[in-house]
Automatic annotation (TrEMBL):
Any one biological process term the GO annotation gives: proteolysis
The species this protein was found in: Clostridium chromiireducens
UniProt keyword terms in alphabetical order: Hydrolase, Protease, Serine protease
Protein name: Peptidase E
UniProt-recorded Gene Ontology molecular function terms: serine-type peptidase activity
Residue ranges of the TM segments: none
Pfam families: Peptidase_S51
SUPFAM superfamilies: Class I glutamine amidotransferase-like (SSF52317)
Similarity comment: Belongs to the peptidase S51 family.
Lineage: Bacteria, Bacillati, Bacillota, Clostridia, Eubacteriales
């Protein structure tokens, strides 16, 4: 059973309620695969972020048996094998369309869709998990881009949502594209039978904003 977890960011580590939820799906000894958002040129930064999140897992008592990074340092075949066999697949933050282009060019999308483990998206990664990626200026993209993404979930998301600063852009977009605004420290967890919300998550739909 694939478990899909869409997040925004955790500036102070995983919150306690998120820790408890992770432990229901992730056990020590599983293998972890970190999919970068930029596959070239920023290897040191990619490794830093991977280790940063591994420490967050460690701090809540989850130790992985192996941790691998997918970026331009490995072959497409190796990347595909890593996705296929991952227990926990982390889709990193960064530039959203750039990450999706790498997922396509490395042939990773079919293997992601066949995953039976836990897929965690953060920021750009969570946008790319959706059926329709809505990359907004509000979320600091260089330009507004909307495209068909992975389709792991049917809804669209706006990470780093600021409930105290709801932009006109989001309200206008919500007339056509309902968005779940995920605040930092918030998450949406989708399994086959239900969806859970942790922290502050808001539905922006037809110009209205409602906490879920």
């Amino acid at each position: 059973m694939m478990v899909k977890i869409l997040t925004s960011g955790f500036p102070n580590g995983f919150p306690d309620d998120f820790n408890r939820l992770l432990k229901t799906y992730i056990n020590t000894g599983m293998n972890f695969v970190f999919v970068a958002s930029e596959f070239e040129n920023i290897y040191e930064k990619t490794d830093w972020y991977c280790n940063h999140f591994l420490k967050m897992f460690s701090d809540c008592g989850i130790i992985f048996s192996s941790a691998k990074v997918i970026d331009g340092r490995i072959s497409k075949q190796t990347a595909q094998d890593l996705v296929r066999t991952a227990d926990v697949l982390w889709l990193a933050g960064g530039d959203t369309p750039t990450q999706f282009a790498y997922l396509k060019s490395y042939g990773l999308i079919p293997y992601i869709l066949e995953q039976k483990g836990v897929i965690i998206g953060m920021s750009a990664g969570s946008i790319n998990m959706t059926k329709t990626a809505v990359c907004t200026l509000t979320c600091e993209h260089d330009e507004l881009k909307i495209y068909e993404a992975l389709g792991l979930v049917e809804f669209s998301v706006e990470p780093h949502f600021d409930k105290n600063n709801i932009t006109e852009e989001l309200l206008v977009l919500s007339e056509k594209y309902p968005l779940y605004g995920i605040c930092d420290n918030g998450a949406i967890i989708c399994s086959e039978d239900n969806s859970l919300y942790i922290g502050d998550v808001f539905l922006i739909d037809k110009g209205q904003v409602i906490r879920v």
